[in-house]
Design a protein that fits this description.
CATH topology: Diaminopimelate Epimerase, Chain A, domain 1
Strand order of the largest sheet: 3-2-1-4
Number of strands: 4
Strand content: 5-15%
Number of helices: 5
Helix content: 40-55%
Oligomer: single chain
Distance between the termini: 16 Å
CATH architecture: Roll
CATH class: Alpha Beta
Structural class: alpha/beta
Largest sheet: 4 strands, mixed
Shape: globular
Radius of gyration: 14 Å
């Protein structure tokens, strides 16, 4: 699927709203990144590189999460920073990916992202509850490049 078509089918406001809802309950940060064009690399490796390029590893508690989607390649991945990965382990990330895969196969793209954001948010809130009304470290918008 062409990236432009994928993006046109996303419910941006609902996705950003889901991110804001989650971040109101946790000190963690969640971002969604949509890769334009082809992706020949493993999506997990590409997501890890993008995580670094976006500076997501620089959050105070090292607990950011990136949902990476490459629609044209029909690939996606979810990456969590060091602190959250230590709390939930590889099995949790695989669970999120498996759940997203079903929705993506049925072309329910927004639902896939919103569900993954919600599930990640529950895990994040359990381990990294919001303690103060401190400033945001990362923007909530969907990144498209």
């Amino acid at each position: 699927m062409r990236t432009k078509e994928f993006l046109s089918r996303l419910e941006h406001d609902r996705i950003v709203g889901a991110i804001r809802e989650v971040e109101s309950k946790t000190s963690s940060q969640i971002r969604v990144y949509v890769q334009r064009g082809k992706l020949s690399a493993d999506p997990l490796i590409a997501a890890q590189k993008k995580f670094q390029r976006l500076g997501m590893h620089k959050t105070h508690e090292r607990n950011a999460v990136l949902i990476f989607v490459a629609p044209r390649a029909h690939k996606f991945a979810v990456v969590g920073d060091k602190a959250i990965h230590e709390k939930c382990g590889e099995q949790f990330w695989q669970h999120l990916v498996d759940g997203m895969r079903v929705y993506f196969q049925n072309e329910k793209f927004s639902h896939a992202l919103i569900e993954a954001i919600g599930e990640a948010g529950e895990m994040l809130a359990a381990h990294f509850p919001k303690i103060s009304t401190g400033g945001k470290e990362l923007p909530d918008d969907i990144i498209e490049t």
